[in-house]
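TODO from last week: model histidine kinase.
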Amino acid sequence: MTSFHTITRLLLVPVLALLAGCAQPPKAPVYRIGFSQCSTSGPWRQAMQSGMERELSFHPEVQFRITDAHDNSQVQQEQIRELVRGGLDLLIVSPYEAGPVTPAVEEAYKQGVPVVLLDRRTTSPNYSAYVGGNNVEVGQTAARYAARLLQQHGNVVEILGTPGSSATAERHQGFVRGLVAYPGLHLVGQVTGDWKEKTLKPALTKLLQAHPEVSLVFAHNDAMGRGAREVCQQLGISGRVRVIGVDGLSGQGEGIDLVQRNVLDASVLYSPGGEEAIRTALKILNRQPYNRESTLGTLVIDSTNVLTMQQQTEKMVSQQHDIERQQSLLQRLRATYASQQTVLYGLLATLLGAVVLGGLAWNSARINRRINHQLALQNAENDKINRQLVAQNAENDKINRQLVAQNEEISSQRNQLEKLAEQSRADTEAKLRFFTNFSHELRTPLTLIMGPVEELLTSSPDLTAAQSQDLKLVRRNTQRLLQLVNQLLDFRKIEVGKMAVRATEGNLLAFVREIVDAFEKPAQLRGIQLRFVAAEPVLTAWFDGNILDKVFFNLLSNALKFTPDQGQITVSLQPADHGRTLRVSIADTGQGISEQDRAHIFEWFYQGDQGAVAKGSGMGLALAQGLARLHQGQLTFSSQPGHGTTFVVTLPREVSEELRSTELAPAPSFMVDEPDPIAVDFELDTPNNTAVSSDTGSETLVLVIEDNAEVNDFLARKFRSDFRVETATDGHTGFRMATDLIPDLIVCDVMMPGLTGLEVVAQLKDDWRTSHIPVVLLTARNAPEQQVEGVQAGADLYLTKPFNPTFLLESVRTLLANRAKQREHFRRELAVDAATVATTNPDQKFLADLTAIIEANLTKTDLNVEDIARSLGISRMQLYRKVKAVLGTGVTDFIQSLRLTKAREMLLDDSLTIADVAYELGFSSPSYFSTSFKARYQISPSEFRALHITPHH
């Protein structure tokens, strides 16, 4: 028995060791991810799915299920609900239509399933993350590259995708917005291709035949770009027409291949985002930090980088195939290992049975030795398999490192391109800023020239005819200089996208007729017949009068300038395009435009050869075309030398919602003087809206309250040289204007009927809206006790009549300077801690109330000035001027200051993340909070927290 126990122990020890060695390693968690795809057809959607599969090849623990809605929103809703009912850890959705799919996505999100939106959004904020490209940026990138190819001069055709598609609308919007920066580029026509190359060919052939001057075609995807190239080859113009596409996919017949074969000149990359969507999903499931909004970048693929892109793509595909082969081998090895493991368990069971049933027999011993030998062989085989697995893992790590290095190289190239583009934009911005600042500097001296000239012309009856004529010449040329300055400022606004369109619905016919009537007298003086013809008595449309009066004024001035005496100008207005647009044409009988000038008349500062006609600034027509485009319209022309020129403005009767305004349309404000013989070009200046004014550009407002009309006028004229001035002739009106306007300083007479100056001062100081305003009292009462009475009432300065005007002006400046110092004191006091402001006077009480209202609503991202003013019971303008007077800053800046001051306190609490602080204080995103915090304190929130919080060890 001893021998049997010994043998049993000798056999059981290695068996138990083998069992322990065969224990299964812990498995990674299994995730179930569902993907609701709007459609799996088309190269771009297939590239998206391929990217997902590539990324998922690194994560065998993920169970991935995809559904195809075949571009049907109703089907996609049901598929999303079916995916959720089947059990999901995360849902990825690429919506076909935002609105119809939103309810199903919200249901999944509210059930606790994280949702990642891919490529397109829903109408609800209930989602975990968004991954997708920026179609507006794609359009702008195409416009910038087109300008580079054509050296900023040429005619362009655009091929649109499916009508109503968000990608079509946004790419078109970005392309048109990008073209605004290049006045030399003209969008002469559009063709709808519906994303397919065959659909566009008939319409594009007709368009290119009608416009043989086209130099470039921008197609919304590469397939339509390929079709455009085939049309150009059929027409024999392929050599001079450039073609730009969008998508930049790899593979035979796709964007990179088409650029490589010179079918396309370039393709704008629009990444499908499949890999990024899977990476974001896994970060969410593994509870790792992730970006809620992941906007994929874009770049232009052309002859300079297409070979690199193609090589990188082919290398990635090759490596992906290697990975798939290696993973297949790994699966086979694992299957072999599992099979051999099963055999091993069977052998072990046989061995144990043999030990129990025949342990005492020598035959069993021989069997045991044979089994041990087999186990040794099996262990050797297992060791060999393990070594192969280790080698395979090392190879996979090497491939992963290569892929990471390639991604970093691509990112570095993209960053370098973005840096160069940003530098170019900065250089252009610096030039435009200098140009605009210089134009602003001209306004004040020119206005100050006009003031005395107007006064001499209107108040000097003893002027000789020659003197009057000279003064009129000075006025006319000063007005022209101001008009040029206004045009330069409009040019600057268009360049930087600051010229806003506020369209209202009105009668365009009546609007144009008013402008034509203004030119009637100058035309009669030269014997020119000015005719206005309309197809209908009333033609309504949505339009912005402030924009269009500059367009029509330039065109009519142009016609008047180039039409000879006894000639004719005809203005006609009629519907077009089945009533969807209105056409305004202005035809003259002048000398026409020469052949060499036609391609350049819409360029900024271009001056053509007009013979004996004097040149102008070269801005009017360029400005008119830019404003017409801004109004979603077009400005075109036709001309025959010796027979005149016709300019045509085509305007849509309906404009997009963002251009509409609920305000009433202002009447056109312009001035037509006699034709200037020294101001001739392809354009005439825009209407001069700057009348002789007292406004010197100062924001400081002085209110004069004086019942004597002559003294009132004298004071107003004296102050207008330095300030904006409003006047009142009695105390009641003056107090009402003070509470409405919140001026920076008040000059008030003491002896007035109704409400005296002392009573006005007392009411102003008792009202917290006006308590901060300095008051200067003027009076003929010069007794010492009367002066003391005025100061006790709250006046800051008491002057007796007659007074020295120079002393009065210097005293006002001193009071305003002291008020500025007081504002600085309040700002310093608030910068330390807004809660410590003492309510010792009405101004400080106002600040305390204002601060309390803002702090109570800091979490609201949509907190605005109107809400705060409503809480205080005052108007928006009263609140703005009160805060500006007390603190020297705007209400929005004050809200931001309070939020950032509160942020410093909250960052000291290490239980809150930086994102928690950002959302708690009403910032729209953590990145915007970090940018604002660093701009204020020159240190990021994370650096601030690291400096003030001792890390836990």
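Done. Residues 833-948 form a domain with the Arc Repressor Mutant, subunit A fold (CATH 1.10.10.60).
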